[in-house]
Design brief:
It is a single chain. By secondary structure, the chain is of the alpha+beta class. It has 21 helices and 35 strands. It has a 5-stranded antiparallel beta sheet with strand order 5-4-3-6-7.
């Protein structure tokens, strides 16, 4: 008997979704998954309207609103684009890249592609594109070519998500309209305030603004004032601005405060469990700074044989803050405590951070313990973790402990401190053997007055007590990483990777210039860095080299993927020791407890937690830096015009940043303040180099600067080079010597230098156009490469020129670096040169032209004439000189033209063969024609100086360089 086969009903397209079961677990009425929608769109190969797509996927009428919501969410995430016709398109097929916008204070910006999108390099967004968005927005970008600087340029096609919904700024009333200028300079939009939305704010006050309408290509953003914070210079306003500028959570929600209030104020007996160890009798102590209020770590050490037992007890925050409760959600949002001068924004409410979780002295506290056995080589041979109850026996400070170790004390905790110090020396030796990188750094502390403003800034001196605690914490952190890794439990590792290829090449290039070598080949280890750090210790340029080493390494981040800690030379490293102030430490505590109980801790996606915690750390650092910069700028306001010395701390294409000695304030010397030259930034050598002068400004160079301004709005201090400083003159002389030595050696008497028209001009007049003045005694000599001295340098300057003669104008526009003391005044009256003037430099002095009718006799130089000219004769170039005056300058000074007839009674010295027939001096006028020799009284000094600058070989620029470095 034949069997008839049943016709099987073919499944609908919607039922073919490979992720249908997953969607059923998440939703009672599951929709087609995102992956399946993307698959259908790709298979169709053309954009589909939402209705067409809904029909294909059998979306019912009551599901249409939910389906539309899913499409909008996919659009926000950059998976699809709904074009202007309303059709759904696959974003990747439109050659679009998902990016996050990073704005720049100058108006342009960059689109940073999401991981795995495009080439990974940032895309330049010109100012016209940045009008559509704000800093932080998520967008879809289409690459549109390359700009004139070779950068990939893009065009914003779609804004996926607006990141800025409120901002802080200063409100101003302009032409009858209220506008708010954001404090975040990366946002280059003025926010228009809607009519009646000023909330009673006054012009210039700081306000919080809610954004009502986002910007686009044709419209500015519109908002309304949500909160008036106060006046710009009010005490503490800088912190209020920073909190809102960086979107730092600073007010605990009501449910978190309620939970904190309900938290017990002391350890209760009913909270003890069988696995919690009683350590109340163990003499644990806390060692922190003088101003610390939250104590999250306590230590104890005792010698056992040749080794030591080290107990590190950490506040058990995880006992009071459970996953998913109100305190946990707020702690995750904050990520870390933020430390400002005179104010802290804690991760947990004060009832926990300074109360029940803080290891205060003489009270019982819950803790998590890392109990270690360390041998004589500093190696951790055994360790174990367990929850405990402790009672701190003393609250000690770093300075107090260091004083005990140096001078002794009768305090009962001294033996405990000595054991800790002995263990520290062992751990320090192990650190050195391991090859961990250790840099010398200077941290500063602001001392405030009663008005809340900085009184002075002082360095924080690190001593061995600081390092003692640091080594104990490092040991516990390494053990926690090892414990989780061996037990196969996921966690957030603190990862610090080594240098990239590009950064390593830049570092090696710089090191070659200073005669240093970094070992390790293409993949240097921390030990190679450590050896180099030891070599540079004590060198004058050590801070610069240390900065270069730090810049070559990558930024440390939190991630579940363990790649080791390069700087500390650890294969695995986590943060375990500060759960009161860091959320990653709290996660590690929970993971360790889960392992001890034989379970697993699943907080969600570990990778996303790592990204979030890394972001909150950077956010806190940026906010703290902003506040410090503002306070330092305010501190420098009353120091405008004062002179300071400092070192170049950073070199950029627009100038150099100088960190002042003993003041610890950084400011900018703009490139326009470096001198009259074309300066170029050389990234490979970290220097700005003058194109014509050759002057270089490098990292670590010592400069003397003058404070020109302190702008509170930009938190920037502006400096200018103080050009009269010995350091500046020395720098200019060095550059001049390098440039001038070869050229001066090629010069010939009476001729032109090779390849330089009009190069027999002596030192050029000052660039300012003012007549040169006599140079006082005591200043450094002129650059050695710019003239030929014929006598010892010490004989060139013996005495200063009297002030009365310093105003004398030169006889010609061509004057030497000695300021041409023999010049006659502009009026034509012979100037009397006083006795006692120093001898001028010997060398290329041009003798005066013989008087008419005196051929065959040696000419008498004008500077040596001792009698007055005959009445009615030309006397423009004649200068009377007392008999006791020293010899005339023999350097490159051009003497003035003598009178037509030799004055009666003047005796000419015996002529030398070289001076019998002086060469005729030719000047090149505009247009390239040779002009007759110039006579001082017939030309104004400013004109002569201008000509000297045009014809000279760069000496005016060299003279201006004197005193700039």
């Amino acid at each position: 008997m034949a069997q008839t086969s049943k016709k099987q009903k073919s499944p609908s397209l919607r039922e073919q979704d490979p992720f249908l079961e997953r969607e059923k677990l998440k939703y009672s009425n599951p929709l087609p998954s995102r992956e399946f929608i993307m698959q259908i769109l790709a298979e169709q190969g053309v954009p589909l309207f939402p209705g067409e797509l809904a029909s294909m996927l059998s979306i019912h009428g009551d599901e249409s609103s939910f389906f539309e919501r899913r499409l909008r969410a996919m659009e926000r995430d950059g998976e699809i684009i709904i074009n202007r016709k309303g059709a759904v398109c696959v974003a990747q097929k439109l050659d679009l890249i998902r990016c996050k916008v990073s704005g720049h204070r100058d108006g342009f910006g960059f689109a940073m592609p999401d991981e795995g999108e495009g080439t990974g390099s940032d895309i330049f967004l010109p100012e016209r594109e940045m009008r559509k968005v704000m800093h932080g927005d998520r967008v879809m970008v289409r690459p549109s070519g390359v700009d004139r600087r070779g950068r990939q340029e893009g065009r914003i096609v779609e804004v996926l998500e607006h990141a800025v919904t409120k901002l802080v700024g200063r409100i101003q009333h302009e032409r009858g309209v209220w506008v708010v200028r954001p404090e975040d300079r990366r946002i280059n939009h003025d926010i228009l305030i809607e009519p009646g939305g000023d909330a009673g704010a006054k012009d210039g006050q700081v306000v919080m603004v809610d954004i009502l309408q986002q910007p686009d290509a044709r419209h500015q953003p519109v908002g309304k004032v949500a909160e008036v914070l106060g006046n710009y210079a009010d005490p503490g306003m800088e912190i209020e601005i920073a909190l809102r500028k960086h979107a730092l959570p600073h007010r605990f929600p009501d449910d978190a405060l309620a939970q904190a209030k309900e938290t017990p104020k002391k350890v209760r007996k009913k909270d003890w469990t069988k696995d919690r160890v009683d350590l109340r009798e163990l003499p644990l102590v806390t060692i922190d700074g003088e101003t610390a209020r939250d104590f999250d770590d306590a230590v104890y050490a005792e010698q056992q044989g040749k080794g030591y037992r080290l107990v590190v007890a950490i506040a058990d925050v995880s006992f009071y803050v459970q996953p998913g409760d109100a305190l946990d959600k707020e702690a995750l949002d904050r990520g870390t405590s933020v430390y400002f001068p005179r104010r802290v924004i804690p991760m947990l409410p004060e009832a926990l951070s300074n109360g029940i979780c803080s290891l205060n002295p003489d009270v019982e506290r819950m803790c998590m313990v890392c109990d270690m056995q360390i041998n004589a080589k500093g190696e951790v041979k055994k360790y174990k973790f367990y929850p405990a109850v402790m009672q701190s026996k003393a609250r000690l400070t770093y300075n107090q402990v260091w004083d005990w170790l140096q001078n002794g004390t009768d305090h009962p905790m001294l033996p405990q401190v000595k054991d800790l110090y002995a263990l520290f020396k062992i751990l320090l030796a192990a650190r050195s053997k391991r090859g961990a990188i250790e840099f010398d750094s200077v941290e500063t502390q602001m001392i405030f007055n009663e008005q809340g403003k900085i009184e002075r800034i002082v360095p924080i001196v690190r001593n061995d007590a600081h390092r003692l605690i640091e080594e104990c914490m490092l040991a516990a952190n390494v053990c926690s990483a090892d414990f989780l890794q061996k037990n196969g439990h996921k966690a957030l590792y603190r990862v610090h990777e080594g240098p990239t290829e590009e950064k390593l090449e830049n570092l090696r290039t710089y090191l070659r210039l200073v005669g240093l070598v970094l070992g390790g080949g293409d993949k240097p280890s921390a030990k190679d860095y450590g050896k180099l750090a030891e070599q540079i210790h004590g060198r004058p340029d050590a801070p610069v080299l240390q900065t270069m080493l730090l810049r070559s390494m990558q930024q440390a981040v939190y991630t579940p993927d363990n790649h080791g800690h390069f700087g500390l030379a650890y294969e695995a490293y986590t943060h375990f020791t500060s759960p009161i102030r860091r959320y990653p430490d709290l996660l590690v505590h929970r993971a360790i407890k889960a392992v001890l109980k034989g379970g697993k801790y699943k907080p969600g996606k570990w990778a996303q937690l790592g990204v979030h915690c890394s972001m909150t750390e950077r956010r806190a650092d940026d906010a703290s830096r902003d506040v410090e910069s503002w306070l330092k700028t305010y501190y420098m306001r009353d120091k405008v015009g004062e002179i300071f010395q400092g070192k170049i701390s950073a070199v950029t294409s627009f100038g150099v940043f100088v960190l002042l000695d003993d003041v610890y304030v950084e400011g900018l010397v703009h490139i326009s303040e470096l001198g009259k030259d074309y300066f170029h930034f050389k990234k490979d050598v970290q220097a700005i180099v003058g194109e014509k002068s050759g002057v270089q400004y490098r990292l670590g160079d010592v400069l003397t600067v003058k404070v020109m301004g302190a702008n509170l709005e930009s938190s920037q201090v502006d400096f200018a080079l103080f050009k009269d400083s010995p350091a500046a003159q020395e720098a200019a002389e060095g550059a001049a010597e390098k440039r001038g030595s070869a050229r001066s050696s090629r010069r010939r008497r009476g001729g032109k230098a090779e390849g330089s028209a009009g190069s027999h001009v002596a030192a050029a007049a000052p660039a300012s156009g003012e007549p040169p003045e006599s140079k006082p005694a005591g200043l450094p000599p002129a650059p050695a490469g710019r003239r030929r001295p014929a006598q010892p340098a010490g004989e060139r300057r013996a005495a200063s020129v009297p002030a009365a003669d310093q105003a004398a104008k030169p006889a010609e526009g061509k004057m030497s670096a000695a300021k041409a003391e023999s010049a006659a005044p502009e009026t034509g009256t012979p100037a009397t040169k006083p006795a006692g003037l120093p001898a001028a430099p010997k060398g290329r002095t041009r003798l005066a032209k013989p008087a008419v009718g005196e051929t065959g006799k040696a000419p008498a130089p004008a500077a040596r004439q001792t009698s007055k000219p005959v009445e009615g004769q030309k006397a423009e170039g004649a200068v009377s000189k007392p008999a006791s005056a020293p010899a005339a300058p023999k350097g490159r000074v051009r003497s003035a033209k003598p009178a037509e007839e030799k004055p009666a009674g003047a005796s000419a010295p015996k002529a030398s063969p070289a001076a019998a027939k002086p060469p005729v001096r030719r000047q090149t006028a505009k247009g390239g024609q040779d002009a007759p020799p110039a006579v001082a009284p017939t030309q104004e000094p400013s004109q002569t100086q201008s000509a000297a600058r045009k014809r000279g070989s760069g000496r005016s620029i060299v003279k201006k360089r004197a005193g700039e470095e």
